[in-house]
Specification:
homodimer, alpha/beta, Aspartate Aminotransferase, domain 1, Aspartate Aminotransferase, domain 2, seven-stranded mixed beta sheet, three-stranded antiparallel beta sheet, 12 strands, HistidinolP_aminotransfase (chains A, B), amino-acid biosynthesis (chains A, B)
Chain lengths: 361, 361
């Protein structure tokens, strides 16, 4: 810490992004990006005219993008806000929405960024323990006295609450804001967007980074009551009136209009996920029932760290955490079928059962 | 304010971005954008490969962009940080660098965003009055007890401190951080970048939004001691590890490499500025000695608000503030020579001296 740094932020742990690729042949299954390129609509939408126009500020209301999102979800434009990635929206949420005590609740194991934001902006953070099977018990979130933030599906487990379970949480917290982060929500979980009309204490956050194949464009969006969205925009306009750059507004708008491609990519990922989960289970892995674009898996006799390291030596990156409850697990992003075949081959190698498999062919 | 909004942020005034263009024929001289398109290097650098790769997160270290900036300013890469526009960097600066009392000093009239950030993040803001001629007196900033933030040139005046004057402020505040915001620094003022090696309490902020013709790409950069940059990155990595999107990293890198185009655009703007200032003075305006890409001018008998409104009726947007000390002035961005000829023609119309000018031809 330098001599001018504020003591207040000394304890902030920087979020550790997944390791970048060092070699071209590396298979990157550690940051939950889509294995498929951006929609062809995106390439077609970015031309010389738009690039020349980079001289102009981006539209602070991001009108085109908001319109496309609202239309897609059958919402009014007053129910949608956009940010420079959902990370920016989450930071604004943690800043903007606090009761007097500044309490915020989220699961002990979830997206690490919630903890960072809570430490920076909130009075106190309460990490709610997961159940034995790494599940979130809705009963633990009923009748609390602060903002509640839940990733659904949760990361790194991939386990999802049903819409009815979230609805129970919403009913039991009518005076608390409940934020449902659906970053991974398009891969099988029930979205809570249909609950927005009914619950003014619900804010749903989604992103273009996973199911919309645009992690590098940095676009997130929040959906909720016009009152919540107005507050989000109020604080956004104070800090980043032009938070989304021109090309990302264009890319996001084009991508949101290409629903066929969106659905195809999701279905491909889900199909691959089920095939890989089945095969890993056959190999002896315990694999949680993921509704996300990743699998959370452990092998009884192989530590998560050892498996992660062994894969790394074979140029395959997956994510491992030293957190005691999940130290045996690794999180594996679903890549293309070819990449996942490589993962399975490497895994058989590591387990020493390659010959058996080969002889079966 | 909605029922969940934090009371702490209730007094935040949203920054009011310049009015967007309503009609195609509108001449937009209200937000200090460059009238010239992005460098041709930018268009050439964004191809299908890069757009397909939007599926991947942007490099959290923005290595290519940092390298290009460091090379251009003959700095080490450890002396450069980048942000989603200089607004994001400024917000991080106000968050990260505070003494125990959280005091921050800046001129009473300057970039409004400093006030927003100070209210959100700092213990107390002290707005230092300008001199009678709207000048910043370096003596007012010597021996203070908090962070000092100065736009140089200042906005909306366009007046600049010399490097020697900033050096005096730095010497008299060896225990305070001094932030010099050079958003408009390329149009004639002396940059303080050469002072970085000598003063560990200096942080210089620049942007791609003005002189580098990329307002819509949202890229700002900070230059200072490795210690300051490390602290900036520490807090950036906690909040926005992937703060700059992939296409803006590419656009910024390409633009930074095209120094010939950069210099040509600046020289064109400066030439136009001097010609327009001279003509406005001939018409009877008081025009401050701007070192920026805008002019700050007033006409004795015409209020700033009336002039701004009259121009708007002729489809020319300029910026006016109701702040008492500058209520007589308007801020006029330097556009192309053709746009400025339109401005001058409209101004003559408004003053009722068109016929005279025409008869002189």
């Amino acid at each position: 810490m330098g001599r001018f740094f504020s003591i207040k932020y000394d304890r902030l742990r920087p979020y550790e992004p997944g390791e970048p690729i060092q070699q071209k042949k590396t298979i990157k299954l550690n940051t939950n990006e889509s294995p498929y390129p951006a929609s062809p609509f995106v390439y077609r939408s970015i031309d010389q005219f738009e690039i020349d126009n980079l001289r102009l500020y981006s539209d602070p209301s991001a009108e085109k993008l908001i319109k496309a999102i609202a239309k897609n979800f059958s919402l009014d434009e007053s129910q949608v806000a956009v940010g420079n990635g959902s990370d920016e929206l989450l930071a604004l949420v943690f800043m903007a929405f606090q009761n007097q005590e500044g309490r915020v609740y989220f699961p002990e194991l979830t997206y690490e960024f919630y903890s960072t934001c809570a430490e920076a902006f909130c009075g106190s953070k309460i990490e709610v323990p997961l159940g034995d099977e790494l599940t979130i018990d809705p009963a633990d979130y009923c009748g609390l006295d602060g903002t509640i933030v839940l990733a659904n599906p949760n990361t790194p487990t991939g386990l999802a609450l049903t819409r009815a379970q979230v609805e129970a949480i919403l009913r039991a917290n009518s005076d608390n804001l409940v934020v449902i982060d659906e970053a991974y929500g398009d891969y099988g979980a029930e979205s809570c967007v249909p609950l927005i009309e009914q619950f003014s204490n619900l804010l749903v956050i989604q992103t273009f980074s996973k199911s919309r194949n645009l992690a590098g464009a940095r676009i997130g969006f929040a959906m909720g009551s016009p009152e919540l969205i107005q507050d989000m925009n109020r604080i956004k306009r104070a800090f980043h009136p032009h938070n989304i750059n021109r090309l990302s507004v264009i890319a996001g708008t084009a991508s949101m209009k290409d629903q066929d491609y969106f659905k195809k990519c999701i279905n491909d990922v889900k199909r691959t996920r089920e095939a890989v989960a089945k095969e890993l289970r056959t190999l002896g892995f315990t694999v949680l029932d993921s509704q996300a674009n990743f699998l959370f898996a452990r092998y009884p006799s192989l530590g998560g760290g050892a498996y992660c390291q062994a894969l790394k030596e074979k140029n395959i990156l997956v994510k491992h955490s030293d957190s005691p409850k999940i130290v045996d697990y690794v999180r594996i992003t679903i890549g293309t079928p070819e990449q996942m075949e490589q993962l399975l081959k490497a895994t058989r190698d590591i387990l020493g059962i390659e010959e058996l498999r080969d002889s079966e062919k």
